[in-house]
Amino acid sequence: MTADTSMEQWTWPPRYDETYRPPEDQTHWLPRRETMPAEQREELILARIRQIMAYAWDNAPFYRRKWDEAGIHPSAIRTLADFEKVPVVRKEELRADQAAHEPFGSYLCVPPDEVKHINGTSGTTGRPTAFGISERDWRSVANAHARVMWAMGIRSSDTVLVASPLSLYWGSWGAYIGAERLGARVFPFGAGAPGQTARTVRWIKQMGVTVLYGTPSYALHLAEVAEEEGIAPASLGLRAMVFSGEPGASIPTIRSRITETFQVGVYDSGSMAEAAPWMNLGAAADEPGVLCWQDLVYTEVCDPVSHQRLPYGAEGTPVYTTLERTSQPMIRLLSNDLTRWEAPSAERGRTYPFLPRGIYGRIDDMFTVRGENVHPSAIDEVVMAAPGYGGEHRIVISRESAMDTLVVQVEYDPRQPEESLPGWVERISGRLRTVLGVGARVVPVRQHTFDRTGFKARRVIDNRELLQRMVTDPPPGSIP
């Protein structure tokens, strides 16, 4: 059924004209849907939510049990405020349900033989979660990502290099099929194998790559390797970089390092693999921040405890509801990420809510030191802004006697004289105290002390014994 002809045939279940592509000079993929008054769009989103809840009630025992226990029926959802009463879904619930109902869980809404693609989590921190994706959903994700990438200025004339693992990771495949759908040339190079980054540098030049997709950490690693190969990163010919997978592309310090090093436009994106199309949070301009593409995945920024939607201007955790998924729909999926949102503004060119700093942390990653809540991204922003930063750092949380201790090991640029290091350390320490509200011991270490990553950076170590060893026996390359 067509929801509204003004929404360019927004239908349930989704149907797309695979031959459609806007003129190259058109700013919007779907002009009406992207620029209509937000209030009108929310009326249509409410109608879609009611359709999806009814669909899940009929086809997914997981949702029927969950809503029954909460005393909620889809027919009772008459406003978006009513929808806030629907209980959130947590990742651990999905894992437990799949363990009990292998392989795709009792929230699979299509016959198992309609699942044509399998992606999922790695399972490094527990049971892996399988994403069973029908062909209809695969095409919906491709079309959705094409729309967002079009907003980033990617066109059929571009060559897009996917510089993230081509494995179970949804990010690589979403970027791949999105770029393919908008007509670009796609280069699935991947990342992570030893020596692969040096080859990436050569292939970028050889193939005339214009757009790179990956993580901010990988881009910074790529720049280091290019310079080691005698190639200036800005000479590679890239004009845009699209990021997801970790905070950074909307954090000013990290963003400016990338833009200045490569002389490119930087576009942030990314929500959760379970909520694919994960580019439902995606930039539409070369500036920090992402839009909430509400007609793809309805996003609520909610209080982390009550899970009620917060007013614009507030900080909270996103809760996602997929509006085009038929195989494993996610309905009020709790992210445990952190963001702050702003009201839709036509001045941004699209009338979607805006996250000015993107996703900048996770509640799970936050730690407390002497009563202060600390987010790793805040430390990243400080140390990466320091002149003479050598490219990597580690955050060590520990305890001496009864007192929490925060140590930040920071690589320094070898061109920086060692006699200047005490002042350098003092400046970083002072800035950290100002930003965090708690003191941190800064330990300078020589460049390349820490391994670089071909994917997502893991910089936080919570280990009491490690701190004791570091204090009594400093790591190689450290300055006592």
Please provide a written account of the structure.
The protein has helices at residues 31-35, 38-59, 61-70, 80-83, 91-100, 135-151, 170-181, 196-207, 216-228, 252-262, 376-385, 421-436, 464-472, and strands spanning 115-120, 130-134, 159-162, 185-187, 211-214, 240-243, 265-268, 281-282, 290-292, 297-302, 315-322, 333-334, 337-340, 354-355, 361-362, 367-369, 372-374, 389-400, 403-412, 441-446, 460-462. The protein starts with 30 loop residues before the first helix and ends in an 8-residue tail after the last helix. Helices cover 31% and strands 20% of the residues. The chain contains 13 helices and 21 strands. It is globular, with a radius of gyration of 23 Å. The strands form 6 sheets. A 5-stranded parallel β-sheet has the order 4-3-5-6-7, sandwiched between helices. Strands 10, 11, 12, 13 and 15 form a 5-stranded antiparallel β-sheet that branches. Helix 6 packs across helix 7 (170-181), helix 9 runs parallel beside helix 10 and helix 11 (376-385) packs antiparallel against helix 12. With 480 residues, the protein is α/β, with parallel strands linked by helices. Residues 1-6 and 464-480 have low confidence and may be disordered. 46% of the residues are buried.
